Write a sequence for this structure.
């Protein structure tokens, strides 16, 4: 998978910074660099609009003083308001570099632009209610607002809101993304996210999901080489048909629907095999060419569904487990290397006791089950048992409609058949699903995503 911008926890960020300092990088120099990068972004977005910079007591506040000084040198009418005294050596030096007046946060008048440099990764508890209210008021009076590194009041590692947090036009992440930039609810408080490079070395474990690079079929390809997918049907035919159609439009060579419902078709290109009995299902699965099997959408939850799931597990094909399969299965039964696509409810049932952020929980679930986990939602997190994580951002909230999960599951199975690489397939499928939703616009239904898939794929070739 194409590695995107790294995501670091506050502790990882501190050790990455410390590694730079140990290598001889000057502590204050890094703050100057961060402040300069942020000031350049604010200047490009806001020009000469009058600006109020709020500076907190730590290094986030230090960044604020650097930003204020640099914007003023460009001719911007800048005022600074502080919350407390600067408590770190770099922030004191940054404050000493600001020779304009310093107002108090409690009494400062609003401005057209607001820069929030109160707290970043060092926030340890919610803002005092009066401070949070003041931040919200000043933000509401501004037409443009910028959060430096993070909106003050969000928990950097989990994305939780620790106090009232305004909505920002732009958040300028410094050096790397933090979980709160991508995880809800914090992610919903930022309209645009920009990550400024300040020379922090990239971690290789957690990244923002990036657009994939896909390959078109070559002259030697044929339908089996491109990947044969089986979608196991159950009591609710529609879900399996949706999934099969998504798999068929994923770039895979061939899709078979192993139907429990007679021979209803979704698209003529999909081969529907009659697999109403468990024996018939076994026969259909007895094919070494199967590159991916999807089970779960519309499977049902009764004894027959359980028997069908067990039949699938016995064959040992590369597996995608979704929906009812996630409700029926126990963690110990999940084969290594399978892909799981739980939404919040399914995840909680399977992995109820896992602590930490959504990223932490997805990573622990992958480790515990040996599977690739796509923990779905507005902030889908993809985790592998070896610790790799990719977080999808900016997906259309119109996806919260019935059947879109079936489409995703079919896409995952299709990309698995094409790539034979579960983590990569999961990332590609989540990206294509999100892009198809963007293309489908508003008020779409799951079926509309299918029509948008070929264009989403074409855009990544
Ligand atoms: N290490 C460095 O030199 C660099 C740090 N950078 C900036 O530094 C930030 C992290 O700086 P810090 O670690 O100093 O942390 P912050 O500036 O985020 O704030 C920490 C300070 O606020 C206090 N505090 C925490 N929660 C509070 C609350 N609810 N109410 C009142 N006080 C509270 C803490 O006791 C501490 O004094 C990053 O987000 C980034 O903006 C960047 O300048 C890059 C370079
Ligand atoms: N509010 C939201 N914003 C963005 N994406 C969402 C939102 N809600 C759900 N999704 C996405 O839509 C899909 C829904 O899947 P799922 O919950 O399994 O629905 P269903 O079972 O009806 O198909 C998932 O890919 C999920 O990530
Ligand atoms: K901030």
């Amino acid at each position: 998978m194409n590695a995107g911008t790294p995501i670091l926890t506050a502790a990882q960020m501190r050790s990455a910074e410390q590694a730079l300092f140990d290598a001889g990088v000057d502590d204050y120099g890094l703050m100057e660099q961060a402040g300069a990068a942020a000031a350049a972004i604010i200047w490009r977005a806001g020009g000469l609009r009058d600006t109020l910079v709020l500076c907190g007591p730590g290094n986030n506040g230090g960044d604020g003083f650097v930003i204020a000084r640099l914007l003023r040198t460009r001719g911007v009418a800048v005022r600074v308001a502080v919350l407390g005294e600067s408590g770190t050596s770099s922030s004191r030096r940054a404050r000493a570099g600001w020779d304009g007046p310093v107002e108090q946060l409690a009494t400062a008048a609003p401005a057209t632009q607001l820069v929030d440099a109160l707290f970043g990764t060092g926030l340890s508890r919610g803002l005092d209610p009066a401070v949070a209210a003041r931040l919200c008021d000043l933000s509401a009076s501004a037409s443009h607002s910028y959060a430096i590194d993070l909106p003050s009041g969000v928990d950097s590692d989990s994305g939780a809101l620790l106090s009232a947090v305004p909505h920002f036009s732009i958040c300028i992440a410094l050096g790397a993304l933090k979980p709160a930039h991508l995880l809800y609810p914090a992610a919903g408080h930022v309209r645009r996210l920009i990550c400024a490079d300040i020379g922090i070395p990239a971690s290789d474990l957690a990244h923002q999901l990036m657009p994939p690079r896909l390959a078109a079929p070559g002259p030697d390809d044929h339908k089996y080489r491109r990947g044969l997918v089986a979608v196991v049907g159950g009591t609710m035919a529609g879900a399996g048909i949706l999934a099969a159609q998504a798999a068929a439009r994923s770039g895979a060579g061939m899709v078979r629907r192993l139907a429990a419902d007679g021979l209803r078709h979704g698209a003529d290109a999909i081969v529907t095999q009659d697999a109403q009995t468990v024996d018939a299902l076994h026969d259909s699965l007895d094919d070494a060419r199967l590159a991916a099997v999807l089970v779960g959408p519309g499977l049902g939850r009764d004894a027959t569904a359980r028997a069908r799931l067990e039949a699938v597990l016995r064959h040992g094909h590369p597996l995608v487990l979704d929906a009812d399969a996630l409700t029926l299965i126990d963690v110990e039964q999940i084969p290594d290397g399978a892909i799981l696509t739980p939404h919040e409810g399914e995840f909680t049932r399977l992995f109820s006791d896992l602590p930490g952020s959504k990223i932490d929980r997805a990573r622990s679930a992958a480790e515990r089950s040996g599977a690739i986990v796509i923990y779905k939602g507005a902030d889908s997190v993809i985790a592998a048992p070896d610790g790799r994580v990719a977080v999808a951002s900016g997906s259309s909230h119109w996806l919260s409609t019935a059947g879109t999960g079936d489409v995703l599951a079919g896409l995952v199975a299709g990309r698995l058949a094409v790539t034979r690489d579960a983590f990569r397939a999961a990332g590609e499928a989540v990206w294509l699903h999100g892009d198809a939703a963007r293309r489908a616009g508003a008020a779409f239904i799951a079926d509309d995503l299918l029509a948008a898939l070929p264009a989403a794929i074409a855009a990544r070739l």
Summary: Residues 228-458 form a domain with the UDP-N-acetylmuramoyl-L-alanine:D-glutamate ligase fold (CATH 3.40.1190.20). The chain has a mean pLDDT of 95. Residues 323, 343, 376-378, 380, 395-397, 399-400, 402-406, 408, 433 surround adenosine-5'-diphosphate (ligand 2) (CB under 6 Å).
